[in-house]
Specification:
Blueprint (H helix, E strand, L loop, with lengths): L4 E10 L2 E11 L4 E5 L6 H9 L6 E6 L2 E2 L4 H6 L1 E4 L11 H12 L4 H11 L15 H13 L5 E5 L7 H16 L3 E6 L2 H7 L2 E6 L2 E6 L1 H7 L2 E6 L2 H10 L6 E6 L3 E6 L5 H11 L4 E5 L3 H8 L2
Parallel strand pairs: 3-8, 3-9, 6-7, 7-8
Antiparallel strand pairs: 1-2, 1-4, 4-5, 9-10, 11-13, 11-14, 12-13
């Protein structure tokens, strides 16, 4: 099947800064693919390249099988974009916002379609309220509705829950999951790793413009190995940390409020590491677990 978005050896330079450095990425159709990384990693640049808003210095970009630069107009008809700034008209109603966008898109039977997308994002009862009265989460949902007016095959979201409260974030997540269930392809950039874990079928990790990992959230977690949380005194934790320097099995150590966390490489004997630790210092308790995506991201940055 043709990929929803495909980047082949894409490089983008901004003055002396290389925003994307030879990135190759394939986002399958019908899935939610996340691009994660810290600020400055190149996420928004990748989004701009995928939308045809920015021409790469090198490489090729294809969306739904079409070259973004050569077939830009045809590609943009198939994309619904939600940028970081929602760019809504605060002084008019949600309905008026969508009516204006429908005219720009040339949407047929606009009133019917507006009603459909408002129902989809659960804003029908607030359709005639001015957008200035909306919460952050409601504004994001309205932006999703606007992006869906022309029924695009691909939805691209750049930091979809930036500045949105916890309840609003979960509402946006629910709508993104619903879009995938309806057959839409979704490309989403975020620096919230819990968001990537909650939403995405695949995750691409960017750091300093380079693609450092790509896998399912579960695959990334498995790749990172196991964690051993030890409960012990601060003195014991510091002593144990020093004694484990150079251990080929322990990839990283981290002091915590309750003691020390050991990161054991993939396939490493986590339980044996825990026993060795207890032989060296007094430990009041321990737990062997899988890392979360935040811990995976830290390990990739080393």
């Amino acid at each position: 099947m043709t990929a929803a978005v495909e980047l082949l050896d894409v490089t983008v330079r901004r003055g002396r800064v290389t925003a994307l450095d030879g990135v190759s990425l394939s986002a399958p159709q019908g899935l939610v693919v996340g691009v994660v990384g810290p600020n400055g990693a190149g996420k928004t640049t990748l989004i701009d390249v995928a939308c045809g808003l920015l021409r790469p210095d090198r490489g090729q970009v294809r969306v739904l099988g079409q070259d973004v630069q050569r077939d830009g107009r045809a590609v943009r008809r198939q994309i619904g974009l939600i940028p970081q700034e929602t760019a809504l008209y605060d002084e008019v109603s949600a309905w008026r916002n969508l009516r204006f966008a429908a005219d720009l898109y040339g949407v047929g039977e606009a009133s019917t379609r507006i009603a459909e997308v408002l129902e989809l994002v659960a804003l029908s009862d607030r359709a005639n309220d001015v957008v200035a009265t909306y919460s952050g989460g409601m504004r994001r949902r309205l932006a999703i509705a606007r992006a869906l007016l022309h029924d695009p095959r691909l939805l691209i979201l750049d930091e979809p829950t930036l500045g949105v409260d916890v309840e609003g974030r979960h509402q946006v997540w629910a709508h993104v999951r619903g879009l995938r269930a309806r057959g839409h392809s979704v490309l989403v950039s975020t620096n919230y790793l819990d968001e990537a874990e909650a939403l995405c079928d695949r995750v691409a990790v960017l750091q300093r413009g380079r693609l450092v990992a790509e896998d399912s959230p579960g695959g990334l977690i498995e790749r990172a190995g196991r964690c051993v949380d030890l409960e012990c005194s601060r003195q014991a934790a510091v002593e144990l940390r020093g004694s484990l320097e150079g251990d080929p099995v322990v990839t990283r150590t981290e002091l915590t409020e309750s003691g020390l966390t050991l990161y054991v490489g993939r396939g490493g004997p986590a339980e044996a590491v825990a026993r060795r630790a207890m032989d060296r210092v007094h430990v009041t308790g321990f737990r062997v677990r899988s890392p979360d995506l935040v811990e995976v991201f830290r390990s990739l940055g080393e």
